[in-house]
Design a protein that fits this description.
With 309 residues, this protein is α/β, with parallel strands linked by helices. 38% of the residues lie in helices and 16% in strands. It has a single domain, classed as 3-Layer(aba) Sandwich (Rossmann fold).
């Protein structure tokens, strides 16, 4: 078994070397489709970061943080809804979406978390509610741990970070640009959804295929995956913010059992399960998701949100 695994790892490493040293500048120029709102840019942590903003006149701020291989399109169903009552910020994390990708950068929880704080500083906001999905949940938890005075309420949506996967560092080379391209380099295909959001996500993925930016993105994802193995679990008891743990009860990626882990470690938690919400209920069940988040932020009962369409 070990011998077989070693051969697989060797082949994967060779494939990664071929891809990473290939003609990164070859192919067509990248021409991504426009997002659903005006794209703004800020220099944060030495990088050009893309973000969307709305509802600046509202007193409370919400920052939406996407997961691994996601981007601002993950929150299309929340942008207009919440900007009616909140100041909404949606960012592309470093190396994702339309934010800058840079060789030699470690796409860590720390970098992503400091980017969230840097965005708040850029727009002049002292404290915000954080909503993070998947790896974005892990990043949001990191911010709540290290910058407790900057976080109002915390909403972890099918969040990563409940497990210590550092033991898997030895097989991390298997997750390289070559294998990422083979399996599909965004989560879009695995998240059931209909309508304009999935079309927009598909158009964005298609724009990368064959473009010179595609290889930079694949390399970014391979590095981001390795950093994602670092858990926030040991520090979860330090979170001071009231926390909603929201989960799709059929999540095939991070199972609903992780809710118990987060709830047992974070001092002040509330749970909410989305029936057939999959891994990203903000995409699969946006109406119910929005209802639950809004009720939680307002300190109201969320039970009436179940099944809202």
């Amino acid at each position: 078994m070990k011998k077989h695994l070693s051969k697989v790892m060797l082949l994967s490493l060779l494939a990664a070397l071929i891809v990473s040293t290939g003609p990164a500048q070859a192919g067509k120029a990248w021409n991504p489709p426009a997002y659903y709102a005006q794209e703004l840019y800020a220099e944060i942590e030495g990088m050009k970061i893309c973000y969307l903003e709305a509802g600046q006149e509202n007193p409370e701020t919400i920052v939406f943080v996407h997961g691994f291989s996601g981007n601002a399109l993950d929150w299309l169903g929340q942008y207009d809804y919440f900007s009616a009552r909140y100041h909404v910020l949606i960012l592309d994390e470093p190396g994702h979406g339309k934010s800058e990708r840079r060789a030699g950068l470690a796409y860590s929880n720390e970098l992503n978390g400091k980017t969230v704080i840097g965005l708040l500083d850029h727009v002049g906001v002292k404290k915000a509610h954080l909503v993070g999905n998947s790896l974005g949940g892990q990043v949001s938890a990191w911010v709540a741990i290290h910058y407790p005075d900057r976080v109002g309420k915390l909403i972890l949506v099918d969040a990563a970070g409940a497990h210590d996967f550092t033991w898997a560092a030895g097989i991390a080379p298997l997750f390289n640009p070559f294998t990422i391209k083979l399996i599909g380099y965004t989560r879009g295909a695995s998240i059931p959804a209909d309508g304009p959001q999935n079309i927009a996500r598909g158009d964005f993925r298609a724009s990368l295929q064959g473009a010179n930016e595609e290889w930079r993105y694949l390399l970014t994802l391979s590095k981001a995956f390795r950093e994602a193995l670092r858990p926030v679990k040991p520090d979860l008891p330090k979170i001071q913010a009231p926390t909603l743990i929201m989960w799709g009860d059929d999540d095939p990626i991070l199972t609903v059992k992780d809710v118990d882990i987060f709830a047992s470690l974070i001092p002040n938690t509330t749970r909410y399960l989305v029936h057939e919400g999959n891994h990203s209920p903000q995409i699969t069940k946006p109406a119910e998701f929005n209802c639950a988040v809004e009720k939680f932020l307002a300190g109201e009962d969320m039970e009436g949100c179940h099944g809202v369409n």
